[in-house]
Amino acid sequence: MKSARLNRLFNAKSGRCFDVAVDHGFFNQANFLQGIESMSKVINTLVDAAPDAIQLTVGQARHLQSIPGKSKPALVLRTDTANVYGSTLPATRISTMIDEPMLQAVRMDAACVCVNLFLIPGAPDVYAQCIDNIVRLKTQSDHYSMPMMVEPLVFRPNSEKGGYEVDGDPEKIVPLVRQAVELGADVLKADPTDDPTVYHRVVETAGGVPLLVRGGGRVPDQELLERTGVLIKQGVQGIVYGRNIIQHPNPAGITRALMAMVHDNVTATDALKLVHA
């Protein structure tokens, strides 16, 4: 009955999902904390803005799940941490899962869990660890009827901008997304391509598995909204944006604008008016 939890994740009106990722503190990078220094304030702001889901870690999910009522966003639980986001790769590289991730997800009333599939230049060991994580998580996912979101991420070399510099080459993104599908992903969170008009290729290789697009680095509002509009037309079933929300001067406003695009097919031009409405 994974569908029961997926129904909490995807909006009934549009069939799409807007998930706000606020799991950045899990990765021990000081610059990741900009905009999320006070998690209780961040979560309260986001809950008021009402995205479909919020992606959190085991240590921060309490801020969301302690809020009373049944109308708050669904919890997507991050299950793995890694040390590969700095400007240089460490000598010992890890992608490590939390203990009994599915049991913890059930206890926290999560609607979905999220796990990485890294493809990093010069780090085949981390790629192997990710495969192992997903293979083990898949069995638990089926046992507990907990949807598994796999996040295929193609890095540029860390020296270019740390591990958050997306390699938007579709020739690299497409096969990694396909591997995530083959490994049993119930939902995908994938990189955007440099040219968003070719993203239908990524959607096609997902083969019907719901595909949400990762936001990437902070960009101007108009650029973000226009890119989102193109991706929706390419057939994606939602977005997972983090820094473009939590580092925005008006997180509630940009969330409102993106929700209108994702669920009501509002144009980027009209959505931009909602940011400061």
**CATH homologous superfamily annotation:** Aldolase class I
Structure summary, number of beta strands? 10
Shape, per Cα inertia axes: globular
Helix content: 40-55%
Main β-sheet, spatial strand arrangement: 1-2-3-6-7-8-9-10
Number of helical segments?
12
- Give the class from helix and strand content and strand pairing: alpha/beta
CATH secondary-structure class = Alpha Beta
CATH topology, what is it called?
Answer: TIM Barrel
- CATH architectural name: Alpha-Beta Barrel
Summarize the helix and strand pattern as letters: HEHEHEEEHEHEHHEHEHEHHH
Instruction: Give unreliable regions as ranges.
Output: none
What is the gyration radius calculated from CA atoms?
17 Å
Into how many domains do the coordinates divide?
Answer: 1
If you had to describe this structure to a student in words, what would you say it looks like?
The chain is an alpha/beta fold and 277 residues long. The protein has one domain (2-274): Aldolase class I (TIM Barrel), CATH 3.20.20.70. It has helices at residues 2-9, 39-49, 61-65, 101-107, 124-144, 158-161, 170-182, 200-206, 221-233, 243-246, 251-264, 268-274, and strands at 17-21, 53-56, 74-78, 80-82, 95-97, 112-119, 148-154, 187-190, 211-214, 238-241. The strands form two sheets. Strands 1-2-3-6-7-8-9-10 form an eight-stranded parallel β-barrel, surrounded by six helices. The protein has a two-stranded antiparallel ribbon with strand order 4-5. The model has no long low-confidence stretch (mean pLDDT 95).
